[in-house]
Amino acid sequence: MTERVVLAYSGGLDTSVAIGWIAEETGAEVIAVAGDVGQGGEDMDVIRQRALDCGAVESIVADMRDEFADEFCLPALQANALYMDRYPLVSALSRPLIVKHLVTAAKYHGATMVAHGCTGKGNDQVRFEVGIGALGPDLTVLAPVRDSGMTRDKAIVFAEERGLPIQTTKKSPYSIDQNVWGRAVETGFLEDIWNSPIEDLYEYTSDPAVVRDADEVTVGFTAGVPTSIDGRPVSVLQAIEELNTRAGAQGVGRLDMVEDRLVGIKSREVYEAPGAIALITAHQELEAVTVERDLARFKRTVGQRWAELVYDGLWFSPLKRSLDAFIAESQQQVTGEIRMTLHGGRATVTGRRSDASLYDFNLATYDTGDTFDQRLAKGFVQLWGMPSKLATARDQRLAGGAPQ
C-alpha cells in the first residue's frame, strides 16, 4: 500500500510545490488540507482545485470559522491574552486548530506522515510539530522548506518545469498571515526596525489619522462570552467580524512591535487586530466591574502565562488545560454591557452596566448617603501596616542606629 502524507496547504507557492516535492522525494500520495479561518482572499474552492492540479490525490477544504471563533478566539478573549502585553495571538491561535484537522485527516485516510511549509526561523514549526506530537504521536512530520533545501528560487524552478498552476513571478514584499482574529505582516523593508510602516501594508484597518465621525458601540457579554452588539444577538464569530469592520474603519488595533520569538531571535512584526483589541478592551473593563479583587489580580498572572503557552506552541499541554479550567470558572459572573467609542485608532470605554456588578454606588460616593463607615478605616490602616512597621523597627535595632 502506498504511503500517504497529509499536508497543511495554504494555496501559496511553497505548499503547492511541496505537493510534488514530497511525492517525488518520498513516493507517497499527498492529501492537502486547507482551512478557512476567516482569512479572506482567494476563494477556497479555487485553492482546493489548485491542490489537485498540483498533484494531490485528495484536497480537503474545511470551513473552520465558527470552530476557530468558539474554541480558540473565545478562550483567548476570556484570558485577555496579549503576548508581551501587546500581541493578540493572531497566528498562534490558528495553528492548533489546523493541527487538529491535520491529525484527524491523517487518521481518516491512513496517512503515516504530516507535512507543513514552515521555515526554521519562525514559531509555527514548533506549533505544528508539538501539536502533532500531542494529538498524533505515531505520525512522522515532514518540513520540506526547513529540512529539504526547498528555497523559494528552487520552488519557482520546480513549479515552472512542471507547469504548476501557480503564480511564480510576482513576489509580495511582505510575509502575511491572517485570520478573523487579526493579520500579521513581516519581512521586506520592515526588517529594518527604523523604517516606518506604510499605509499600503494595512488591509484590516483604515488610517487612524484621517478625520471621521466616531462610532459608538455597546458590547454585551454573558458569562464572558460576547453575545450582543448594540442589543442585537450575535455569535462569537459575528461579534469579531462586526468589530473588525467597525473598529477597523476607525484604525483600531494597529500594532508595530519587536517580538521575542520562541526560537530565540527578535523579530519586527506589524499586526492589525481591530476586532480582537476592541473585544479584549471591553472584556477587561467588564471584568473590572464584576470580578473580585484577589481573583482579578491572580487572573492577570494566569492570562499572561496562558498567552505565553499558546505563543510557544503548547496549546495541548497539561498546564494550558488546567489554566483553561481556572479561566472558565473566573467567567461565571462576567455578564453585562460595555459601551465604547471607536475613534482615532482607539477603543475607549465610556460606560459599564451589569447585574453582577461589584461596584456599589453607596459605598463609592463621597456625597450625602455614603454608607461607608470611615471610622473603621483607622484600625484597618494600623493593622495593615503593622508587618512593615515591625520589620523596619527590627532592621533599625539590628543596625544599631536610627533611620537616616
Automatic annotation (TrEMBL):
<dbReference type="GO" id="GO:0006526">
    <property type="term" value="P:L-arginine biosynthetic process"/>
</dbReference>
<comment type="subunit">
    <text>Homotetramer.</text>
</comment>
<dbReference type="InterPro" id="IPR014729">
    <property type="entry name" value="Rossmann-like_a/b/a_fold"/>
</dbReference>
<comment type="pathway">
    <text>Amino-acid biosynthesis; L-arginine biosynthesis; L-arginine from L-ornithine and carbamoyl phosphate: step 2/3.</text>
</comment>
<feature type="binding site">
    <location>
        <position position="87"/>
    </location>
    <ligand>
        <name>L-citrulline</name>
    </ligand>
</feature>
<keyword id="KW-0436">Ligase</keyword>
<keyword id="KW-0055">Arginine biosynthesis</keyword>
<dbReference type="InterPro" id="IPR018223">
    <property type="entry name" value="Arginosuc_synth_CS"/>
</dbReference>
<feature type="binding site">
    <location>
        <begin position="8"/>
        <end position="16"/>
    </location>
    <ligand>
        <name>ATP</name>
    </ligand>
</feature>
<dbReference type="InterPro" id="IPR048268">
    <property type="entry name" value="Arginosuc_syn_C"/>
</dbReference>
<protein>
    <recommendedName>
        <fullName>Argininosuccinate synthase</fullName>
        <ecNumber>6.3.4.5</ecNumber>
    </recommendedName>
</protein>
<dbReference type="GO" id="GO:0005737">
    <property type="term" value="C:cytoplasm"/>
</dbReference>
<comment type="similarity">
    <text>Belongs to the argininosuccinate synthase family. Type 1 subfamily.</text>
</comment>
<dbReference type="InterPro" id="IPR024074">
    <property type="entry name" value="AS_cat/multimer_dom_body"/>
</dbReference>
<feature type="binding site">
    <location>
        <position position="123"/>
    </location>
    <ligand>
        <name>L-aspartate</name>
    </ligand>
</feature>
<feature type="binding site">
    <location>
        <position position="124"/>
    </location>
    <ligand>
        <name>L-aspartate</name>
    </ligand>
</feature>
<keyword id="KW-0067">ATP-binding</keyword>
<keyword id="KW-0963">Cytoplasm</keyword>
<feature type="domain" description="Arginosuccinate synthase C-terminal">
    <location>
        <begin position="174"/>
        <end position="390"/>
    </location>
</feature>
<dbReference type="GO" id="GO:0004055">
    <property type="term" value="F:argininosuccinate synthase activity"/>
</dbReference>
<feature type="binding site">
    <location>
        <position position="119"/>
    </location>
    <ligand>
        <name>L-aspartate</name>
    </ligand>
</feature>
<dbReference type="InterPro" id="IPR048267">
    <property type="entry name" value="Arginosuc_syn_N"/>
</dbReference>
<dbReference type="InterPro" id="IPR001518">
    <property type="entry name" value="Arginosuc_synth"/>
</dbReference>
<keyword id="KW-0028">Amino-acid biosynthesis</keyword>
<feature type="binding site">
    <location>
        <position position="175"/>
    </location>
    <ligand>
        <name>L-citrulline</name>
    </ligand>
</feature>
<feature type="binding site">
    <location>
        <position position="271"/>
    </location>
    <ligand>
        <name>L-citrulline</name>
    </ligand>
</feature>
<feature type="binding site">
    <location>
        <position position="127"/>
    </location>
    <ligand>
        <name>L-citrulline</name>
    </ligand>
</feature>
<dbReference type="Pfam" id="PF00764">
    <property type="entry name" value="Arginosuc_synth"/>
</dbReference>
<feature type="binding site">
    <location>
        <position position="123"/>
    </location>
    <ligand>
        <name>L-citrulline</name>
    </ligand>
</feature>
<dbReference type="GO" id="GO:0005524">
    <property type="term" value="F:ATP binding"/>
</dbReference>
<feature type="binding site">
    <location>
        <position position="117"/>
    </location>
    <ligand>
        <name>ATP</name>
    </ligand>
</feature>
<dbReference type="GO" id="GO:0000053">
    <property type="term" value="P:argininosuccinate metabolic process"/>
</dbReference>
<feature type="binding site">
    <location>
        <position position="259"/>
    </location>
    <ligand>
        <name>L-citrulline</name>
    </ligand>
</feature>
<dbReference type="Pfam" id="PF20979">
    <property type="entry name" value="Arginosuc_syn_C"/>
</dbReference>
<dbReference type="GO" id="GO:0000050">
    <property type="term" value="P:urea cycle"/>
</dbReference>
<feature type="domain" description="Arginosuccinate synthase-like N-terminal">
    <location>
        <begin position="4"/>
        <end position="165"/>
    </location>
</feature>
<dbReference type="InterPro" id="IPR023434">
    <property type="entry name" value="Arginosuc_synth_type_1_subfam"/>
</dbReference>
<keyword id="KW-0547">Nucleotide-binding</keyword>
